[in-house]
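Table S5 (text form). Sequence records supplied for joint modeling of the four-component complex.
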Amino acid sequence: MNGTTGEGMSLSVEERKLLAEEWISQGEGKLDQVIIHVGSLCIKESQQLAKHAAAYNASGIAVISPFFFKPQSIEALTEFLKEVASAAPSIPFYYYHLPEFTGVSLNVVELLDGIEKRIPTFQGVKFTSSDLLDFGQCVHKYKDRFALLYGKDELLLSAMVLGANGAVGSTYNYIGDLCNKMLTVTERGDFNMAREHQALVQEFIGFVNRFGFGVAENKATMMLVSGIPLGPPRLPLLKCSEAKQAKILAKLKILGILT
Amino acid sequence: MNGTTGEGMSLSVEERKLLAEEWISQGEGKLDQVIIHVGSLCIKESQQLAKHAAAYNASGIAVISPFFFKPQSIEALTEFLKEVASAAPSIPFYYYHLPEFTGVSLNVVELLDGIEKRIPTFQGVKFTSSDLLDFGQCVHKYKDRFALLYGKDELLLSAMVLGANGAVGSTYNYIGDLCNKMLTVTERGDFNMAREHQALVQEFIGFVNRFGFGVAENKATMMLVSGIPLGPPRLPLLKCSEAKQAKILAKLKILGILT
Amino acid sequence: MNGTTGEGMSLSVEERKLLAEEWISQGEGKLDQVIIHVGSLCIKESQQLAKHAAAYNASGIAVISPFFFKPQSIEALTEFLKEVASAAPSIPFYYYHLPEFTGVSLNVVELLDGIEKRIPTFQGVKFTSSDLLDFGQCVHKYKDRFALLYGKDELLLSAMVLGANGAVGSTYNYIGDLCNKMLTVTERGDFNMAREHQALVQEFIGFVNRFGFGVAENKATMMLVSGIPLGPPRLPLLKCSEAKQAKILAKLKILGILT
Amino acid sequence: MNGTTGEGMSLSVEERKLLAEEWISQGEGKLDQVIIHVGSLCIKESQQLAKHAAAYNASGIAVISPFFFKPQSIEALTEFLKEVASAAPSIPFYYYHLPEFTGVSLNVVELLDGIEKRIPTFQGVKFTSSDLLDFGQCVHKYKDRFALLYGKDELLLSAMVLGANGAVGSTYNYIGDLCNKMLTVTERGDFNMAREHQALVQEFIGFVNRFGFGVAENKATMMLVSGIPLGPPRLPLLKCSEAKQAKILAKLKILGILT
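The corresponding structure-token record, covering 1036 residues in total, follows.
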């Protein structure tokens, strides 16, 4: 999914289509699901990307709120999402809630009320916000009906205890083992053990936040950990400096995440 | 404690002293602890209140950050707190972290690093912020040494799972039973049952937030539930309207909090 | 220019090209200048639009900062703008400063320092922000070298007195006469008379701001005043309600802007 | 006036009274007016200070909005101000609008509508905000009735052109000459010459803002320029560092403000 781990929003429509095709074809037989993010400031481009994803048999599509002109009400947001979803009526639709980036912080629980009547393919939410009051209400009312996937890695345990039924995040690319362990023990109700895992994640994120940690830094970290060359970020992002990389590397080693 | 449940910050120094005396004398034999909030924009008044609290045998004192002129660094905040604490060197000192009101959101975990050398009476934090990344780090590093009391009622479970060792909040005046049940089951590790209790609290707070819920509304709710006349709030707060009170009452009944 | 008067950011790349072509061809012989906004979250699309504008003999191009991933420094912003400008090296380049929409509030005066070495076609700034400290410094240092066009209609006089050498704004579509009078008297130094004109504009904008005035409302107002059918806004914007339109119309009449 | 140049809000009630007495007695025969700031989080203390100021023949009193509990409406703010003003019914009352510090940004023009019926001693506003849309409307509607004193030194010219009838600010303690020249030329309508003076002020403030300029820094600057020892600021403010002082001094010399 090209959201805030990748740089989907910095790509052209054509590039986004190519990338979607590649993920879908590479994922076949290896990944359970490939959900394509098709959000755009332009609803027509969003619809075009939605159609394309469906044609290539994506498992589903996800959409963030437009954020230059911002929807001023739940009604306006629902209307926008509905028009995109209706361009790919055969595959599941997810709302990707990302207020730190979009500035749109309309309550998700209000969006969910009655949404299946407006968007029959509605399947769930990727909820990337620290507003656990909103998230908790979503889970309580809708966890049997919708997927409620939590996206703030440093708060995952606090969301799981409220009943999140999944997680999607950036740092899982290199601290996925840690998180999987956390999810496993959480599933069997062992929140006390889960806490130890969450603490490591928090210490890492708390550390990197102090000197600025965005997509460029996350990308550099993924390279450091995986050894896979990912190339520099695209403008307006600048490459993560060597000095920052060294600090990140040192911290990963201290925490035992990298050996 | 006169913080944001009460209206301590709207009282004169003399009134605050009288109120402290009253709580301490009424609490004798009935309350485990009476901690007096002695924060003030004026450090001398804060010291005066601290001395007074100690003279009247308060169990401890708590201080929020000054918030007209704001400390610009951990160093400045520590220095301020130290000067207040040193006026009452015989009783425990708590930092009351309340960034939504003070606008001071310096990381608490950084404040705690080495604080016992600067403030020998330092005992803990009342943490009233939704920043669970900061809170989680505090708990992980310091829960054996300091009291880490969580103060956002609607996020209590999410804080408990990180290891909070206590809770202080406004709504506990009327949904305390609910919260006590939640804490009990949490203590024995039953986070799944705790979730049901937290959901009720979230539904109440989510509901009242939509039409504005501050100290005036909280006060009205306490009166509705307890039947104890508490009087109107002091200016600049206006009395909670009858219409709002009716909505709150109806919701409390629907949720089964009031019968 | 399709910025925040029009809905350029809600259009596809193809639509933006068509619109640019239309403005350029319709403007021939009628408009002094047609400057095409070519900003995009995707630098490649931005470059493509820049090339297109140059090929169609636009008078210049303008670019807002990308705002999903945001430039974290003057260096990153300059680098982004430079890459776009270099795709249309034969026509003037303008930076369009729009922090209320982009969330990028890097000081423009720092951007301008030495920019002609990085971007040889750099010609000026459309400055749509109420930060008159920044704007005043831009004007003082650079008004002989660059065009410094002010874009907050309600603060135009306050910017003119600092030496702005032009203005671009949304409401000029219907209160342009008023503004032209203001500019004329300002040019001959009669700021006292200018004040009366500015007061009318402020009363209008102050009034509409109280009930929400965005692109949809501005569009409706343009229709009301000009009689030209402009169609509904595109999602996520909803059509301005009849009730709002009636209020706007009444106010325009009271102020004598519409008769 | 002990507002944000002085540290009135960090003083105890007793200290504030002593300071008021001193200003009034020292000012006799030397200052046209001595207006005492009597704002407080506690309305009773505010009333006490108002009475005291009147008893000592202050020229007037000024009050900022309370800012721990914040007035939620014009009605609540008016009610608070009215109760303070009524404690000193014989002397003029000013509202001191300071949203950057108080977080209360209710529109002043709405406060002024009909205020003389609620507060018979109401005399004017010290308006310290960059919201020139609000200020312009205040001036247009009320400049014949109320004093509308502008308080953002770096934007003074932009406010004067709208018709401000006075100015109060911190930097006037050392760049007062510059500002007086600006006001003189402005009065005779020579806004073009005024611009040169404003530019110097903007360059100074723009420069110091980049490395943080608050009350501690302003105090150090006043000492540098006047040679009068003013002592260190009170906690939570820390003393301006030597390094910062050196930078400020160098800038004042470059700009010709200090020789």
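Note: The longest strand of chain D covers residues 122-127.
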